[in-house]
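Structure in, sequence out. Go:
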């Protein structure tokens, strides 16, 4: 990619460290609340994984998670204690990142060792017994070598959600060598552990109009959950990353980035399902009907996986006559393997009621027998080339092409369980595809540029190894030995402008876009599209406009705001073609602004006093991935504020979130369930820096 967001002819939203710090955002989903057009899915109960499963502009991005441009293997709740900033690249980006993404990617920039010594500690406490500590130490060993250590512990209940907690612990170490040399190397190790209770939310209830809506919007207490004593989410994620960069000459740079990941997760969750018919009428009459379950009562699995990736790239700058070229070329190789054992419950009785659910399991337990074993893997080899051609000072052409040779496989051994066969064979999928992109950038003045971009991405079956449903080999989630699956294809057309004002202190963007996704995994013998599982069996067409304003309006006044309007339609579907695309909110905006009051209120030497606040809004949308437009999620609104004071080595801050106590929903799954978010919460922080 180009070296800066300003030079990239595509919509990129950056959540900088300053915003993360002021908002006290601790998890990736909290940081991404600042990015319009992102929704979450709770995961499918019958084998699907709960965790960071994001959608960008309504399109699946659950496997499109990156850190420092390398794949972030595994499905888990990502704490951002070791993150400098978060970037969301919107629109298919296969020419950069290879097979897999159709709506965009999410990248976290890790904290790296740097010159100079610094010591920082923050202690936070807040609603729902939140207690969190975060230490960040950077020590310069000599002129060329430094080490940086980050540590975090986070213990908390989830506000307004009974018996749900989110406990996490993490450590990260980065060794930087060659800080002042032409060749530099960073070796980064990160470990994250979670010991939490998962929340699959509340049922959807069918109304008289036939539409399903969250039952908490119809009188059920927002803190009602259906978790039981055996529900757990225990995970350990290890990442080892090597980043080597060498400026071999003034015009040629060589980089080599490598990651090795290992993840383990033991997961058990109770899965509520929709309340319809007699259940709905009894609930509306004030009764306490029996809870209807999905996935036989809930999912359980023991997951062990690993992944590896290496990217070797050369970057050259040179001229041919009057034309200036910036060429990047290289090879990207990655592999992931996922072993999963599905659980079998003993003694579990599904006897909860909607209003007053029981919590105890009465001795119920779960085991993970060999008969529940599944294995999935994927391998991708990508060759990429890009050329940024400066024809004149005002006119630039940018072209990128990437070729991927992708293969995946899935195996369920013989048995009599669901999705198993006594003669089971390993299903395979192979796909070789080009992912091209082309852009024209015109800069009539130094402060502004206009661009037009086309890009195309492909997503073969089996790219989401760590998060896909592997309970059954009969759906489009997994490769098959008997079905002619075709890769999804996603095309982006985008026209936009990026401009700087106030001596480059304030940046603005404006973009018009259309994404057309041919979500067609499987055709029958007549050539007709087969309706499959989740996203399979239909396509999407998303059109919209997005604008942003970021930077300083005055010396003391900063602003970070963005707005998007999207119109999504279902395509390639005989039954639901023309419907609104699910999980696409028409109107979305996010605003965060801060003002430094120090010069107006404090005397010199009394530090910095800052006030900040903002709001996040998303209009209601149809729950997905079902495309039938039968489940509706209400609009989201959160009004937030912050007050902080810093003086020399000390700082104190206070945050208040969702001040109006609005009932919001963080994620949903079709007509089955939705997960309510916390109401009004408060957070205090005390910090030291040396």
């Amino acid at each position: 990619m180009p070296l800066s967001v300003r030079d990239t002819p595509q919509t990129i939203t950056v959540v900088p460290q300053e915003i993360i710090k002021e908002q006290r955002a601790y998890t990736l989903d909290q940081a991404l609340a600042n990015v319009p057009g992102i929704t979450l899915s709770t995961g499918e109960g019958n084998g699907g994984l709960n965790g960071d499963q994001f959608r960008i502009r309504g399109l699946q991005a659950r496997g499109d998670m990156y850190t420092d441009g390398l794949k972030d293997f595994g499905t888990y709740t990502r704490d951002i204690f070791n993150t400098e900033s978060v970037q969301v690249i919107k629109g298919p980006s296969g020419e950069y990142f290879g097979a897999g993404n159709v709506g965009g990617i999410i990248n976290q920039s890790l904290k790296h060792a740097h010159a100079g010594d610094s010591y920082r500690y923050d202690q936070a406490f807040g609603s729902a017994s939140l207690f969190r500590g975060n230490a960040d130490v950077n020590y310069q060993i000599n002129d060329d070598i430094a080490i940086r250590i980050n540590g975090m512990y986070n213990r908390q209940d989830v506000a307004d959600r009974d018996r749900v907690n989110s406990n996490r612990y993490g450590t990260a170490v980065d060794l930087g060598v060659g800080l002042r040399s032409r060749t530099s190397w960073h070796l980064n190790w990160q470990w994250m552990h979670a010991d939490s209770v998962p929340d699959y939310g509340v049922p959807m209830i069918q109304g008289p109009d036939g539409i399903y809506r969250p039952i908490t919007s119809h009188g059920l207490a927002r803190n009602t959950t259906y978790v039981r004593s055996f529900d757990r989410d225990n995970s350990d994620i290890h990442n080892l990353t090597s980043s080597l960069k060498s400026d071999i000459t003034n015009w040629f740079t060589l980089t080599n980035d490598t990651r090795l990941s290992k993840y383990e997760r033991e997961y058990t969750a109770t899965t509520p399902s929709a309340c319809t018919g007699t259940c709905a009428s009894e609930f509306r009459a004030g009764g306490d009907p029996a809870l209807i379950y999905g996935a036989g009562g809930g999912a359980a699995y023991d997951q062990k996986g690993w992944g590896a990736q290496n990217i070797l790239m050369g970057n050259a700058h040179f001229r041919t006559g009057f034309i200036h070229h910036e060429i990047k070329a290289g090879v990207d190789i990655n592999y992931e393997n996922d072993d999963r054992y599905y659980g079998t419950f003993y003694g579990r009785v599904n006897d909860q009621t909607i209003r007053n659910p029981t919590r105890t399991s009465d001795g119920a337990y779960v085991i993970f027998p060999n008969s529940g074993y599944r294995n999935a893997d994927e391998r991708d080899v990508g060759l990429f080339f890009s050329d940024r051609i400066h024809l004149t000072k005002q006119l630039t052409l940018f072209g990128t092409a990437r070729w991927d040779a992708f293969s995946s496989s899935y195996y369920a051994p013989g048995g009599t369980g669901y999705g198993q066969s006594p003669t089971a064979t390993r299903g395979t999928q192979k796909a070789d595809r080009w992912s091209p992109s082309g852009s024209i950038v015109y800069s009539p003045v130094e402060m502004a540029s206009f661009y037009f971009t086309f890009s195309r991405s492909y997503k073969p079956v089996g790219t989401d190894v760590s998060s896909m449903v592997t309970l059954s080999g009969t759906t489009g989630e997994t490769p098959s030995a008997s079905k002619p699956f075709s890769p999804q294809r996603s095309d982006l057309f985008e026209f936009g402008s990026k401009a700087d004002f106030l001596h480059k202190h304030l940046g603005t963007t404006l973009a018009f876009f259309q994404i057309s996704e041919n979500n067609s995994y499987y055709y029958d013998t007549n050539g007709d599209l087969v309706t499959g599982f989740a996203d399979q069996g239909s396509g999407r067409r998303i059109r919209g406009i997005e604008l942003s304003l970021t930077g300083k309006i005055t010396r003391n006044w900063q602003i970070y705001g963005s707005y998007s309007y999207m119109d999504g339609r279902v395509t390639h579907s005989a039954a639901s073609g023309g419907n609104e695309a699910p999980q696409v909110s028409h109107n979305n905006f996010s605003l965060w602004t801060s003002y430094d009051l120090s010069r107006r209120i404090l005397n010199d030497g009394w530090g910095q006093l800052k006030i900040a606040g903002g709001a996040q809004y998303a209009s209601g949308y149809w729950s997905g991935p079902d495309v039938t437009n039968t489940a509706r999620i209400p609009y989201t609104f959160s009004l937030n504020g912050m007050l902080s004071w810093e003086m020399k080595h000390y700082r104190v801050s206070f945050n208040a979130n969702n001040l109006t106590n609005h009932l919001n929903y963080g994620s949903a799954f079709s007509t089955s369930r939705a997960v309510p978010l916390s109401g009004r919460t408060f957070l205090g922080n005390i910090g030291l820096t040396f």
